[in-house]
Amino acid sequence: MLKNNLLPLGTRDEFGSRASEKQHIISVIQEVFNNRGFSKISTPLLEKQAVFEPYKLGNYQMYRLLDQEGDTIVLRPDMTLPIARFLSATNISLPQKFSYVGDIFRISRRLSGSYNELTQAGIELVGYSSIKAEYECLVLINQLSSQLLDEPVEIELGIADFAKSVLSTLTSDDELQDEIADALYNKQVPKYEELIEQFKEKSEYKFLLNWPRLFGKPEVIFNQLEEYKLPDEVETRISELKNAVAWIKQTIPEQTVSIDLSSRAPQKYYTGLTFKGFSKAGAGYLFSGGRYDKLLANFQDVSESAVGMGIDIDLITDLVVGSMPKVNKKLIYFEDSQWEKAESELSKTPNATLSLSDNLKDAKEEAEKMNAELVDMTEGETID
Question: Which of 139, 227, 285, 354 is the most buried (most CB within 10 A)?
């Protein structure tokens, strides 16, 4: 038997119930996408590195290799940018609704516990400037979570450029803005408070002090924000959040919603409302997305309005498999001449499979390894 160290770091083999459940989840998601009129799109696993160069895509590295022409090729670490590349190279009329399912590859930090190969589904709504595009994503989070999960999913709303809008009114130093924002996002409160000390005489200082704690129930956060005098641009962003919360409560009133004004946007290229969906039963965001109206500007002269959402298939699979009840499996043993009878038994027996062993002794060993109940059709009785 080959040693397990032949498996590349950060990858895994999938089989049995997990593999079956994962495929079922993908099928449900694709059916929902299809029923809502999304066009399926598939992009290559291999992309030129130049597609991703304008963006710092999180705290990971890319798998790189050289093609026969000497260009640096990467295993795609993201699904949105290849779709933007595709749109810039074609004459497809907009607006368009795209859906996808595929694997992405990211070299995570060592000992982070993250896998380097991830399966992601998602949608891209391109050419829509209306807030209806964001609301379509929120409805999908609600519908998919109710179909796939026993535990409710909470939607967390944010604003991608909220930090930029606030900090740009205080300083024109981009490096200082980034340093303050990073300390805020990473919850490094002592460092954050030290950095904002220089703005102690500013009217926004009271807000800055409370900023790291501006997350939770919308009504609580909105009441706290009433205490501060904020720039008009920031107030406009807050109004957008209020409208989104009001829409959720009216349209999908059973949906739990929260706000976080101190969290980082899912990707650097996000520009507007962001949304994340998570379950208290598991770690990590199951759904993640938002608006990124400037994305196509890096691929063509004219930009396009766009909203997208990614779905972490592996995290959803982990939650579903972890909550699945123990299945009482059955193994049907039979003689070659009994095949028709065995097929009949299989069709009416839940969680059953046929034993292909040559004899009863081997069938008993097979059942023991499977932790299954053995149905012996050669003797006309069930043997535990």
Answer: 285
Which CATH superfamily is 4-323 part of? Bira Bifunctional Protein; Domain 2 (3.30.930.10)
Residue 288's beta-bridge partner residues? 276, 310
Q: What whole-number distance in Å separates Cα of residue 163 and Cα of residue 266? A: 14
What global pTM score does this model have? Answer: 0.87
Pair 177, 168: CB distance under 8 Å: yes
The DSSP-derived string for 30-49 is: HHHHHHTTPEE----SEEEG
Residue type, 93: S
* Nearest Cα to Cα of residue 304 among 316, 292, 312, 315: 292
pLDDT tens digit sequence for 140-175: 999 999 999 988 899 999 999 899 889 998 999 999
Q: Say which residue the tokens 């209306």 belong to.
A: 130
Give the distance from CA 363 to its chain's centroid.
Answer: 43
Who's near 47: CB < 8 A, 6+ residues apart? 73, 74, 76, 81, 82, 85
**371 CB neighbour count, 10 Å cutoff:** 11
